[in-house]
Amino acid sequence: MDGEINLLTLLSLVVAVVAIIKLRSLLGRRTEEDESRIERKREAMNKQVAGAQSDKVVALPQRGRQAEPAEATVSVAEVEERIKAFAGADTQLATRLMDILRLDSTFEPETFIRGAKQAYEMIVTAFAEGNRRMLRDLLSADVLDSFSRAISEREQQNLVIDQSFVGINKADILEAEVSSKGIASITVRFVSQLISATRDKSGEIVDGDESRVKDVTDIWTFSRDISSKEARRNLNWKLVGTQSPN
């Protein structure tokens, strides 16, 4: 009996030791699932950081933000040369862009175009979704009123836009000016591609084609007050006018 008890006790101890060793070997070891989960979290954090950095670099889509404009990292002379290269043979456009630069030393046309493209996609998408809150931060009062009325008419007819934004093929500055009150305006022509279909309440397509990529050309004018240091703290350019190409 004592021998059996000792044998059972010994076997129990062996099992316990093996279990402890196995547990210790697993603790601190990352499984493939753990690695995948950690990588997903790392990617999400990187996107958040990148998004925050992008907000600081591209001023146009910023919503309701007022901050001290960043100091120019290059000289005005260097930016003037960039403007001349950007405008090419259009000397009048170059002159008008330099007028903006003289009031706002942080202005660069390439940076503006990057922001304008982001704003264009945000506005087109928000309009299709009926997102008035997003539009409110990006449009002037007059343009917002026009867009809101179009959305309301669509809602009253129980119409829904099913849209996918494919991308922007081209974005060119056509005109620029600074008013006597220090209001800068820049007109941009966007050439984009969309997949868009309008459906009625039964889901039937009444306009557009859900399987066809459509080329769209829009001419939009953005505006910003750069008349004073205080005004320039508001980094937002707002959409103040839209038109279709001739």
TrEMBL record:
Name recorded for this polypeptide: Preprotein translocase subunit Tim44
The UniProt keywords, alphabetically, are: Membrane, Transit peptide, Transmembrane, Transmembrane helix
Q: Which lineage is the organism of this entry classified under, starting from the top rank? A: Bacteria, Pseudomonadati, Pseudomonadota, Alphaproteobacteria, Hyphomicrobiales
Which PANTHER family does the entry mention? MITOCHONDRIAL IMPORT INNER MEMBRANE TRANSLOCASE SUBUNIT TIM44
Q: Which domain of life is it from?
A: Bacteria
Q: Where are the transmembrane segments?
A: 6-27
> Where does it live in the cell?
Membrane
Q: Which GO terms describe its molecular function?
A: protein-folding chaperone binding
Tell me which GO cellular component terms the UniProt record holds: membrane
In this protein, which residues make up the domain named Tim44-like?
Answer: 93-244
Q: Which family does it belong to?
A: Belongs to the Tim44 family.
| Keyword Transmembrane helix part of the UniProt annotation | yes
Which SUPFAM superfamilies would you find in this protein's record? NTF2-like
User: In its keyword annotation, does this UniProt entry include Transmembrane?
Assistant: yes
Recorded hits in Pfam families, A to Z, give: Tim44
Q: Which InterPro entries match?
A: NTF2-like_dom_sf, Tim44-like, Tim44-like_dom, UCP031890_Tim44-rel
Q: Which GO terms describe its biological process?
A: protein import into mitochondrial matrix
